[in-house]
Write a structure and sequence with these properties.
The complex is a heterotrimer. Chain B is mostly helical. Chain B has 13 helices and 3 strands. Chain B has one domain. Chain C is mainly alpha-helical. Chain C has a single domain, classed as ABC transporter involved in vitamin B12 uptake, BtuC. Classes of the chains: A alpha/beta, B mainly alpha, C mainly alpha. Chains in contact: A-B, B-C.
Chain lengths: 282, 357, 289
């Protein structure tokens, strides 16, 4: 399906979601989220609602606080104020690890792979919490070890095949080309079995053909895994092409929300981009 | 697919080569010793070599695989050594069989050192890099200092402990003192054997090699490579760091017990900062994360001072210079390149020489 | 009570002077210079030789010790550490340990392991106030420490070289782009640190007048923990950490147990680091995600 004809509907709360998800509860509901760093407000009054199968975009000029929002959602930073409801559950008091186990997986703007491990092992780290055996089983190589490892191996290859990377399974992750590293990060995040996938500039450093392939894959992932995706991206072709709803962040606050078409014509957004860093306006 | 299969089999082969090396080492030395080709000073080194190999392997688990710098590994060896000695001495009547008593002592040593590792690890593993290094150093010093003041005695009522002196143990007249502060453990019955030492090395190797290639081992390697990404993948970072640290401490404890039960006296000062550093040198020179390298480095560097005996006073100086030079050369691209070329040339000329003759 | 306190400050001043060397080198080269403690020992021997064998008076022999250690520090840096500037911190650490072994064993060959009785260099009478006696060595140590602190603070804030040092420790690459000679700045740091180590060596041996090749090792480790205690890389931190460590050690010896005093000192360090992982005055460095 193309997102050009997508319609957003307003929920009882001040959130917009794609029409098909109208009657489903929100996957992510963030209200009044904010953080101060030493008296300086980095993010303030951040409100967003993402429905269970929505692809949402978060855009804004450099330094607007987009990655900070991701860091708040994944509890790399503890929010100063506000609430984050994931699938109706408050993530207050959870740490990064628990948030992942609760269903948020992410990629990083500056790629963070396990450089010295193989591609397959990187994915298996994502599968860690679904591999069911403990230390003694592993050390003594009990039958369960072989069973679980085999299952993990097959699952890892299956996940890698989303990006056609199954042939690279034995390579050392740090030696992969840049684009492949970004794709591997997405696979690893998917391996943790998330309900919500956060992608931080997934197309950075990719060439146009890689980017268009990525766009297809993002939709494929959403359709196959039935998950919500929130992505940060500077490549407007990608954002306008795959996102169903877009939120624009400037100076830590949301200045506009809407469909790609609405955002493109929003004077506030144009001003924010032109008034800020020219380079990032593309 | 093919690629992966090859990788797995490579890992397995490498593991078996390691077992083979250890067994070959044992057989060669055993034959030399039976046929009388082994000097008494070398014979005396066999069990310490086993201990140091286990120390190096276990430290490699922390430094190489977990990626944390620990400067207090001798502290765990010390805990294992003295708890092992206390166990062996106090069970002298109850368990007359030496081998069984040794095995109990090794287990007690591993248990206590593992406990010490847990007590230390829980609060400090949150620290990173140089800070963790300094805290482990401090713990090593604390353990040495406390053992230096520890008196333990055994009589018919059981074990008595004191941090002051022998009198405050308040023992029956028939009781015997096992540990006496800075004098350490006196009158130990030698229980350790080379064979048990080798078995222990193989067990430790088996454990580490299988551990590394399993779910927890993978998690630990991931934490080493990128802690933040590991957290984002839902890996309980502290749990796994602690697992590696405690396991390593327990192995060091067993090594300590093996070491101590090879001598008639052992003093706490033996397991000081310098011993921690010595083991770290084994690990670094053997190659961080490289188990075979640890085994070879621990063996060679334990024998080396013996071989350098003819230099007498100069040997430690030579050792220091060798250490510095090795670090400078292995960390210099040009020097390594030159070295590789020279070795290649040498090999080439040798094989060519063989062809012509 | 008061005399314990003054003894503590005096011992702490020695630690502080040594810790300054550790902290400056760490701040600028990001390395744990384990050979620093042995430079102290060399400083002690130099002062000992020039007074005991050559019969020099106190001031020239101290200056001689400073000169030798400064040169030694620069040579060590040039030969052993500079080639490893881009190597892993573990490689540098092991090399530093190699240097430490080298210095200890060289000293062992030259001066043997027999302890030397360090000559009394401070020839003032002890200060007596009421029934409290304060040793002249303690007074000289404290004064020396204060002077060093003031001079060093002025140096790092007012002089060009000092500012360059701070710049290099903040960001080596940026400092280089600004036209700062990074290598010269690092050499200078080693020179200052080693010179301070010589002074610390003389003061340490004056307070505890036995000199052995291993004399520097334990104070070196303790001063290093003092530097970490105060927040490694921070000059006031090293000062504070050193003095607190000295006071804790003397009081632990006096009121708890002489034998366990080292354990107590290290335990306090660990507690501080657990509560405040970057030391008392250390800056928090968080990784950018």
């Amino acid at each position: 399906m193309s997102n050009k004809d997508i319609k957003l509907v307003q929920l009882p709360s001040p959130n917009f979601v794609p029409e098909r998800d109208r009657d489903k509860p929100l996957m992510l509901e963030v209200s009044h989220l904010g953080i101060d760093f030493g008296g300086l407000t980095a993010v303030n009054e951040f409100n967003i609602g993402i429905s269970p199968t929505e692809i949402a975009g978060l855009i804004g000029p450099n330094g607007a606080g987009k990655t900070t929002v991701f860091n708040l959602l994944t509890k790399v930073y503890e929010p100063t104020r506000g609430t984050i409801l994931l699938d109706g559950k408050d993530t207050h008091g959870m740490n990064t690890i628990q948030v992942n186990q609760a269903g948020i997986a992410r990629t990083f703007q500056n790629i963070r792979l396990f450089d010295k491990l193989t591609v397959e092992d990187n994915v298996k780290i994502g599968l860690h919490n679904s591999i069911k055996y403990h230390m003694p089983t592993g050390v003594f190589r009990l039958p369960k070890y072989w069973r679980e490892e085999k299952k993990a191996h097959e699952r890892a290859l299956e996940l890698l095949s989303i990006f056609d990377m199954q042939d690279m399974a034995g390579y050392i992750a740090g030696s992969l080309p840049y684009g492949a590293q970004r794709r591997l990060e997405i696979v690893r995040a998917l391996a943790t079995g998330p309900k919500l996938l956060l992608l931080d500039e997934p197309a950075a450093g990719m060439n146009p053909s890689e980017t268009s392939e990525l766009m297809e894959n993002i939709e494929k992932i959403r359709d196959e895994f039935k998950i919500a995706i929130l992505l940060i991206e500077h490549d407007m072709n990608l954002v306008m092409g795959v996102c169903e709803s877009i939120a624009v962040l400037n100076f830590g606050e949301i200045i506009a929300k809407g469909t790609p078409a609405e955002i493109q014509n929003n004077p506030k957004v144009i001003e924010a981009y032109l008034g800020a860093d020219e380079e990032s306006s593309n | 697919m093919d690629n992966i299969k090859r990788k797995y089999s490579k890992k397995t082969i490498s593991s078996f080569i390691n077992y083979g090396i250890v067994i070959a080492f044992f057989l060669v030395l055993q034959i030399l010793s039976v046929t009388g080709h082994l000097g008494s000073s070398m014979k005396g080194q066999l069990i310490p070599i086993c201990s140091y190999i286990i120390m190096a392997l276990s430290l490699n688990l922390v430094v190489g695989i977990s990626g944390e710098l620990s400067l207090g590994h001798a502290g765990f060896m010390s805990v294992g050594a003295f708890s092992g000695v206390v166990a062996a001495s106090s069970l002298a009547d109850a368990v007359p069989n030496g081998i069984i008593r040794l095995l109990i002592a090794l287990m007690v040593g591993a248990l206590f050192a593992g406990l010490a590792g847990m007590v230390i690890g829980i609060p400090v593993l949150r620290l990173q890099g140089d800070y963790l290094a300094i805290v482990t150093l401090a713990f090593g010093e604390i353990i040495k200092n406390v053992l230096n003041c520890l008196y333990v005695g055994a009589d018919s009522k059981g074990l008595h402990f004191s941090l002051k002196d022998q009198q405050s143990l308040h023992m029956e007249s028939s009781g015997k003192v096992i540990l006496s502060g800075p004098m350490g453990a006196l009158g130990i019955t030698k229980l350790s054997t080379f064979f048990i030492g080798i078995v222990l090395i193989i067990l430790v190797l088996f454990y580490i090699q299988n551990f590394v290639n399993s779910r927890p081992g993978r998690a630990i390697a991931a934490i080493r490579d990128n802690r933040i990404a590991a957290e984002a993948c839902g890996i309980p970072v502290t749990k796994y760091k602690l697992m590696a640290f405690v396991t390593s401490a327990a192995m060091a404890g067993a090594a300590g017990a093996l070491y101590a039960l090879n001598y008639s006296t052992v003093v706490p000062k033996k397991f000081d900062f310098n011993t921690s550093i010595l083991v770290l040198v084994f690990v670094v020179l053997g190659g961080i994360g490289n188990l075979r390298g640890s085994i070879i480095a621990a063996t060679v560097l334990t024998i080396l001072p013996e071989l350098l005996r003819e230099f007498q006073d100069y040997r430690m100086l030579v050792y220091a210079v060798v250490l510095i030079l090795v670090m400078l050369i292995t960390n210099n691209e040009k020097a390594m390149e030159y070295l590789r070329k020279t070795i290649k040339k040498l090999l080439k000329s040798k094989s060519e020489g063989r062809h012509t003759t | 009570m008061l005399s314990y306190f003054i003894n503590g400050i005096s011992l702490g001043s020695v630690y502080a002077i040594i810790a300054l060397g550790y902290t400056m080198v760490y701040g600028i080269a990001k390395m744990l210079n384990f050979a620093h403690g042995d430079v102290i020992m060399i400083g002690g021997y130099m002062a000992f030789c020039s007074t005991a064998y050559l019969g020099w008076p106190a001031i020239p022999s101290v200056l001689f010790a400073i000169l030798v250690c400064t040169v030694l520090g620069v040579i060590i840096e040039k030969l052993a550490y500079k080639p490893l500037r881009d190597a892993s911190s573990l490689a540098v650490l092991i090399t530093a340990i190699g240097v430490s072994y080298f210095l200890q064993n060289a000293a062992l060959l030259i001066w043997s392991s027999n302890p030397k009785a360090f000559p009394n260099m401070v020839k003032f009478p002890n200060l007596v106030i009421g029934d409290i006696q304060i040793s002249s060595v303690a007074i000289v140590t404290i004064i020396a420490c204060i002077i060093i602190m003031i001079v060093l603070t002025l140096f790092t804030t007012k002089t060009k070289m000092g500012k360059a040092m701070r710049a290099v420790s903040e960001d080596k690459g940026a400092a280089q782009l600004m036209g700062i000679n990074v290598n010269a700045t690092i050499s200078m740091t080693f020179a200052i640190g080693s010179g301070l180590a010589a002074i610390a060596g003389v003061l340490l041996c004056s307070a505890y007048p036995t000199l052995m090749p291993t004399t520097g090792a334990m104070p070196g480790i303790k001063a290093f923990t003092a530097a970490v205690f105060g927040g490694i890389g921070s000059i006031p931190g090293a000062m504070l950490g050193g003095i607190l460590l000295g006071i804790i050690e003397i009081f632990a010896k006096a009121y708890i147990s002489t034998q366990l005093s080292d354990a107590i000192v290290f335990a306090v360090l660990i507690i501080v680091l657990i509560v405040k992982p970057t030391g008392l005055l250390g800056k928090k460095i968080s990784e950018k995600v």
